[in-house]
Structure formats: C-alpha cells, structure tokens
Design goal:
With about 750 residues, the chain is of the alpha/beta class. It has 21 helices and 27 strands. The radius of gyration is 28 Å and the shape is globular.
Length: about 750
C-alpha cells in the first residue's frame, strides 16, 4: 500500500515497445520474410501474434457493422458484438499479459513478442478500431436510425415534452437507485466494479470555494441503458439523464463539470488443482473476480483535466491502460435497441430451423431416433436443422424409453431454460443411471453451471466436475440401451455446446452414431472423467490431452506421403482458431511438399500464408456473417478417399494440452460428402468472406461483375428450406406438416 494515499502501490509493468508503429489498416505483425531468410519453421517471422490476430477478427465483425447491405438494426447489433467481444478480450487476454508483466515473466509465443510489446501494440490497434467504431455508429448508423424513427437523442436535442418526461422519469425511477460518493475529505476512493459505467463530477462548495470530486455509478443493470421517451421511438442514454439532474444529487453545491468513464478489470481466475472442494473453490473465485486489477480505463473525450488526473491517479494506472473514447462509452448496450420490439424491416428475415428429413414423421416426435441411428449414422447441422427435434428429442426419448439404462452428458455451456439438464433429473427419478459432467470453470458461465450442478446433485444425478488441471470441453451424450441380450451404445458428438439459444445463432455439426467402436471410446472417455484411469489408446476417436495433436500431425504427414506417391492430395480444414505451433509447422511442411492446403479459420490465425518456399500453397479465409461460424471439420484427401473428422477441438495449445476434447471420424460416405460440400461452399463464399495475406491484412472478398453471388449461410438456409418444402409436399396430414418446421 502507498502510505500517502492508502491505495495499492503502482505496479511495475515493463517498458514500452521499441518497435515502430505500423501503418494504419495493417495488422502490426512482422514483415513478410524472404524465402532464403527462413532457416527453420520455428522462425518467429513465420507466425502472427495470437492477440493481434484476434483483434483482426473483431475488425471483421466491425466491417459487418459498416456494411450497407446488412439490415440497419443488425449493423447496430454488430457494433454491440464488437464492443462485447473487446470487453472479454481485455478481461481475459490483456489481463493475462499484465499478469505476466507483474510476475516478471518474459513469456513469448512462437511470434517472439514480449508481453509489454503486445500490450502496446494492442492499445494502438484498439484505439484505431475504436475510432472506426464510433465513426460508424455516430456518423452513419445514428442518423440512419433517426430517419427510420429510432432516435438515440442527446439531452440538448430533446423536445420540451421529452425533457419533461425525462425529468419526471429521473425523479420517479432513477434518483432512488443512485448513490453519489464524494472522494477525498478523509474518504477513500470508492471501489469501481468491473464494466461499470460512471460519472466523475467536479463540485465546488460555494462557501469555502473548495473543489471536490464525486463519483456516480450508472445503474444500467437495474434500469437499462437506454430509456424510451415519447411515442416516436426515442431513447435517451441513462448517463445523460443523470448528468442533466446532478443538481438534485448534490444540493447546495455547484456542479463545475462532469465526465463519463468506465473500468475493465481482470476477470480471469485459476482454481488450484489442490482444491478439496472444487465447487466451493469456484464460488470463492467468482466473488474475487469483482476485485481484479484494472486493465483498461475508458474516458469520454473532453473530460475535465482535473477529473482525468484524479481518476488515473486514484486507480494507479499507466498511459497504456487509458483509452480516450470520442463518443458513447459501452456500445455493447446497443443490443437493447437492436432487440427492441418492432421494425422487422430493419432486421434479417426470420429463420426457423427445420427438422432434419430423417427425423420428420406424421406427428411431431413420432420418429424412433434409436431405430434411425441403428439404420445409419445421422448428421445434423445447426441452425439449419432444428436442435429441439434432434438433440433435445434424443435425450427426451432416452428418458422415456424403459430399455435405456444410462444417460451420460457433458455440460460446458447451457442455457438457463435448457430442457436437457432437467431431462437428466427426470431420468434419475425414473431409476436410470444419469451422469452429468459439469465444467464449473467454463469462463463467464460458472454461475449458471454451479446452479445446474447443485440442482442435479439434489435430484440424485451423478455429477462430476472433471479432472484437476483440465477443462472438459467435450460435447458428447452417451445413451446405453438394453436390446435383447446386449447393451447398445448410442452417441451424439457435437462441435457446439448443448445450448438451445446459441444453437439458433451458431453453425455447428452434430453426429449421431451407434458405431460400437465410437461408443466404446466415448464410454471410456466418460470413465476417465468420472474415475481415474486413462486409456492409452482409443479405437477411432481423437482425444486430448492424450492423442489429438499427434493424430492431427499424423493425418497431415499421411497426406504428404500420398502426394509424394503421386496420389491426388489436399488438406481442407475449418475451425475457430489456428494457434498451435506444432500443427502449423506440419501444415507448412505439407505446403513445402506441394500439397494444397485450404483453411477456413473464423477467428485467430497464427499461420502466415503465401510465404515463398514455406506456405505459398496455403490459402486462409474467414467467414463472418449472420451466424457465428463455430463448427470444426478436418478433411484429408488421399487418392480416392477423404478422411473427415469433426468435434469440439480447435488447433490451439489450450485445446490440445489443457482440455479434454473429442474429435470423431465421419465414416458414412453420404455424411462425409455432405460435410465436404459445406466446406466447399465456405471456400466459394464471396459475400461474407475475407482472405488473409502474408502481411497479416484480411481483405474482404468481392465478386467480379460476371461472377455469381455465393453466400454459404444463405445457401444452406435455402437448402434446408427446400428439403422442408419437399417433405411438406408429401405430407399426408396436418400433423406431419407441423412436425417438419418444429
């Protein structure tokens, strides 16, 4: 503690980066190496920085907000998504870099950048992107919304009647929720909670002429950020309503000036592997999360210098932690307006997932899923195929079936109203063995998972919290069913969480199979999670942290060997992020051998394509659109055969080394062909796709004048709708027609 201020002492966080700033619009990464200068595939110049690459993913989200072809309220939503993404990035990734500085750790990734260098480059890039964000929102979207009778009004622009309403709303609803706190005069600086929006107020005592500072928290969690006023679609930011009534909060004093600010804190935590009670340990860490170190202070441009100085000094911050914002703070709250009722013409046309054709029956839920899965493996693709009539129906049927002996499921993230977890409770009540592997450490979903874990345990479900030191990221359901004298195992393996809401927003594959080898592998994995033994080998599955990286690299090396033997060879992969250096080196070797490598990477990509002699045979594209591309698919063509794998893991060290993950082969020829078709549509997309250059620049792919428009998400929606229409045409009863689109 600093005895002069009774505040924590300033942290030492290393010096500024000695690298010059890069030109605007280009990822601040290394220059492209010359082929003759690359002596090793470990050369740092062959790798993009993980954190800076993530910022370029968020830039692609921002470009959708700038895209005039996107409906207006959806553009507003993309502004909110950009801001929300950035908050989480600071709470976790940037906080981790500061932790390394605090600990004196000179940790460098494959790209060779020190933590201090990364922090400085992140700040420069974020300030550039924030300017774009506020130009888009304030200069383009806000006027366009006003033209469509959706006004976000500043107080000085409100009409007299609106001002009266605002004044009345303040005294009736807002004033009782406010707690002004004076700073100084023997009072400590107040604790400012994570992501809270506040006013800093400069006051003057008219008698003593003494100036003091106060802080007022904006209670948007209680009242909402934007207050509707009038009947013509006008919204006023809550902080502006408070600012206009500061005299009511500080009677008898003069309000000299005020400004808005916002604090972001370190919200990541680590639970010790030695914790005797993991549930209690996570609950304790959640309480401590509120008090994490400040990693970002956002200040509205134009704040009074005295207020600015007081804030930065009281929070004990350095320049690299302070961000001046020219516009409204906390644009993540724009989702409130994007979700407001009405104005359907300003949104994407509604999409209702359809029931997968093999699961359609004359009555809703009438198809025997176990019979269908026994007949042949079944593939669903969300949000085009319904989650409710496939995954949820699978579990519900297992609960109802008297021949089902056991249901085992993993839960990483799930919705508050999920029917899957209550289904396990019903299964336990019916005497079935019900097992749920709940990952308590799923970041920012810890509280929801704690709630479900306690409810499950109270109902008699066997609840397991995973393996010390590992997160369980697997997406799997195992159903053991008695059939005659044998027990058959039915399995669902997914690329996405068992979360009904995100299943309508994320693109994810789900594979249903009764393959005995896959069933045995998944059963052994659950035994690993609930017991202690660790299988040395799995029959067909790739499982981390034991075999997955090696198996991925073996697939790449086998494809290289096929190419060198004169067979047609190609690698085509789809994932969220590509970070793992071992996998990247293997892909570089494939390119050097002449194997074409096509990568569809939604987010982070540390691989550098197009480097002569190293990666000129590698193409990297990213699709960012209406739905969040979330599926992981890995294909390796060797001669006449293509090996197809799908599952929960990205090629990242955390997935391969510190998580339990599951990737399964897709062996049915028809399903393999369908997944390959989806990948080819992704690589052909010229509507919501970006191409990565060797300089780190992501360039939006634009179709030529005579080139047909390709949009993978539109094409897959249309294909699903066509399948539903064909089923409707052959439906024999109204009930069948209803079941198709449930």
């Amino acid at each position: 503690m600093d005895p002069r201020t009774n505040l924590p002492a300033v942290r030492e966080r290393g010096g500024p980066s000695d690298r010059p700033p890069c030109k605007a619009g280009v990822v601040p990464q290394y220059d492209v190496p010359l082929a003759e200068s690359v002596t090793s595939l470990d050369d740092p110049s062959l790798y993009f920085n993980r954190e800076l690459s993530w910022l370029e993913f968020n830039r692609r989200v921002l470009e959708l907000a700038e895209d005039e072809s996107v409906p207006l309220l959806e553009r507003l939503r993309f502004c909110a998504i950009y801001a929300s993404n950035l908050d989480e990035f600071y709470m976790v990734r940037v906080a981790g870099l500061f932790d390394q500085l605090d600990a004196g750790i000179d940790a460098r990734g494959p790209d060779g950048l020190r933590p201090a260098e990364q922090i400085d480059r992140i700040q420069r890039r974020v300030l550039e992107l924030d300017k774009r964000l506020h130009r888009c929102f304030g200069g383009v979207l806000r006027p366009a919304l006003e033209a469509d009778d959706l006004r976000i009004v500043a107080l000085e622009d409100a009409s007299e009647e609106e001002r009266r309403q605002i004044h009345r709303r303040f005294h009736e609803q807002v004033f009782p929720a406010l707690t002004p706190l004076v700073i100084g005069l023997g009072r400590p600086f107040p604790y400012i909670s994570n992501l809270s929006l506040s006013l800093a107020v400069l006051l003057r005592d008219p008698e003593s002429e003494v100036e003091i500072v106060a802080r007022v928290k904006v209670p948007k969690e209680l009242l909402g950020r934007f207050l509707p006023v009038g009947d013509d679609g006008a919204f006023v930011p809550l902080e502006h309503v408070i600012a206009a009534n500061l005299d009511a909060l500080f009677p008898g004093t003069e309000v000299v000036d005020y400004g808005f600010f916002r604090v972001t804190r370190d919200a990541d935590f680590t639970v010790s592997d030695e914790a005797d009670d993991l549930l209690q340990a996570v609950q304790d860490e959640l309480r401590r999360r509120r008090f994490g170190e400040v990693v970002r202070l956002e200040i509205a441009t134009g704040m009074n210098p005295r207020l600015r100085h007081e804030l930065i000094g009281a929070l004990r911050l350095e320049d690299r932690e302070v961000y001046d914002i020219d516009g409204l703070l906390d644009l993540a709250d724009l989702s409130e307006i994007a979700d407001a009722p009405g104005h359907a013409e300003l949104r994407y046309s509604p999409w209702t997932p359809v029931t997968q054709p093999r699961l359609q029956g004359e009555e809703e839920g009438s198809v025997d899923m176990f019979r269908e899965i026994r007949h042949a493996d079944l593939l669903v693709h969300h949000p085009y195929d319904s989650f409710a009539s496939s995954v949820e129906r699978f579990v519900e049927q297992a609960v109802e079936d008297p021949d089902v002996l056991a249901i085992k499921q993993t839960v990483y993230r799930t919705s508050d109203d999920s029917p899957l977890v209550p289904a396990l409770i019903r299964a336990s009540e019916r005497g079935k063995q019900a097992v749920c592997m709940v990952e308590l450490k799923a970041r920012f979903d810890e509280e929801a998972n704690i709630h479900w874990a306690q409810a499950l345990e109270e109902a008699g479900v066997h609840v397991v919290y995973g393996i010390p030191g590992l997160k369980t990221h697997v997406k799997a359901i195992l159903v053991a069913r008695r059939e005659g004298r044998q027990v058959r195992e039915y399995v669902h393996i997914g690329t996405g969480n068992y979360h009904a809401k995100t299943a309508r927003l994320y693109t994810d594959f789900g594979l249903f199979t009764a393959d005995p080898d896959i069933g045995a592998d998944v059963a052994e994995m659950f035994n690993f999670l609930t017991g202690y033994g660790r299988p040395a080998e799995y029959r067909k599955m790739l499982v981390s942290p034991t075999t997955m990286r090696d198996r991925f690299i073996e697939e790449i090396e086998a494809t290289i060997a096929a190419h060198e033997a004169g067979e047609e060879a190609r690698i085509a992969l789809k994932m969220n992020s590509l970070v793992d250096a071992g996998c990247i080196r293997a892909l570089y070797r494939a390119s050097q051998a002449g194997v074409p490598v096509d990568l569809n990477v939604r987010g982070i990509c540390c691989l550098k394509p197009g480097v002569p002699g190293v990666s000129e045979n590698i193409r990297v594209v990213s699709i960012v659109g209406r739905f969040l591309e979330h599926s992981r698919v890995y294909t390796f063509r060797r001669g006449e055969e293509t090996r197809v794998l799908m599952g929960s893991a990205d090629m990242m060290p955390r997935n391969l080394d510190s998580r339990v993950e599951l990737v399964a082969p897709v062996e049915d020829p028809g399903l393999r062909a369908e997944m390959i078709d989806v990948l080819e549509r992704c690589f052909a997309d010229n509507s919501n796709s970006w191409d990565l250059g060797s300089d780190g620049e992501w360039t939006r792919i634009r179709r030529g004048e005579d080139e047909p428009r390709r949009d993978v998400q539109t094409e897959l929606r249309e294909r699903a709708a066509t399948r539903a229409a064909e089923q409707l045409a052959t439906a024999t009863s109204p009930a069948a027609a209803t079941a198709v689109t449930s």
